[in-house]
Amino acid sequence: MEIIASYPLLALNTLALPAKAEFFCRIETMEDIQQALSFAEQRQLPVTVLGGGSNIVLAGDLAGLVVQVALLGISIEAQEDNTVLVTAGAGEVWHNFVRNMLAQQCYGLENLSLIPGLVGAAPVQNIGAYGVELSDCFVALDAIDIASGEVTHFTRQDCQFAYRHSIFKTHYRDAYLITAITLRLQREPAVESSYPALREALASYSKTDLTPQLISETICQIRREKLPDPALEPNVGSFFKNPLLSSTQAETLAAQYADLVMYPQADGQVKIPAAWLIERAGWKGVTTGCCGVHKHHALVLTHSSNANGRDLLKLAEQIVADIRQRFNIELEMEPRVLGGNDR
Ligand code: EPU
Question: Staple partner for 212: which of 110, 169, 251, 290, CB 3.0–4.6 Å?
Answer without folding.
Answer: 110
